Amino acid sequence: MNTSKKQRRQPLPYDVIVQATEGNSEALNAVLKHFDGYINTLATKRLYDEYGNTYLYVDQYRRQRLINKLISKIVGHNAA
Amino acid sequence: MKKSSSYQTKKRYQFESYCKSVLRNETRDCYKEDERSLKQESLFSELDCHEKNQLYIMDEYFAQDHFFNVLGNDVVVKGDELAEALSSLPEQRRDILLLSYFLDMSDREIGEKLNLVRRTVQYQRASSLKQLKQILEGGNTKDEYK
Question: Do A69 and B16 touch (CB under 8 A)?
């Protein structure tokens, strides 16, 4: 799926949403890919060392937790 | 059944915002859990010496234990001080204490074993306790009771 920046801001296609709520794995993957950036942003943590420098890193545990939550909430969700 | 395209567009945006809400709320839950666990957990490196010592126990293997023989039963008493105080008591009083607190017998049972009235057992038990307390706290008062 080669999407330009302009297309990526568009919400997901209706068909994908319907299939995702029915539990279609391909559609779910598309949804996860769509929200990948947002999930990474939410799962990013700031670390500070003793010199005051800031480090950003993506908490993989939290990332997975968000993904799990999203999937469990999408499947069975009445979107249609 | 094909829905109209404006309906579809609406649903697409609704789904978008629904997903974002789910993710946002879950993130908030994560932060709350982290805060809660921060309050309750502490690092090993930040514990002081006293708290660290509470985290383990040593096996003692009868190093401080003393044995008393009461009516054919061996009673194990832990701790030198207590054992010393007990052995300084008269034999009958010591037997009553051991039977009642280490072997969990009632006053009536003890009375039957030692051929005493229940009331006597109760009185001797109570006064022996007081006596023990004085011995353990003061150390010099045991002569009064002999």
Answer: no
CA-to-CA distance for A34 and B12, rounded, in angstroms?
13
A50 residue type, one letter: E
Record: contact A11-B22, CB cut-off 8 A: no
Q: pTM of the predicted model, to two decimals?
A: 0.52
Contact predicate A15/A73, CB 8 Å: no
- Where is pLDDT greater, at B91 or A75? A75
Of B12, B15, B23, the CB nearest to A42: B23
Cβ neighbours of residue B132 closer than 8 Å, sequence gap 6 or more: B85, B86, B89, B97
Copy the structure tokens of residue B17: 């915002």
- State ipTM: 0.80
Nearest to B16 by CA among A6, A34, A40, A66: A34
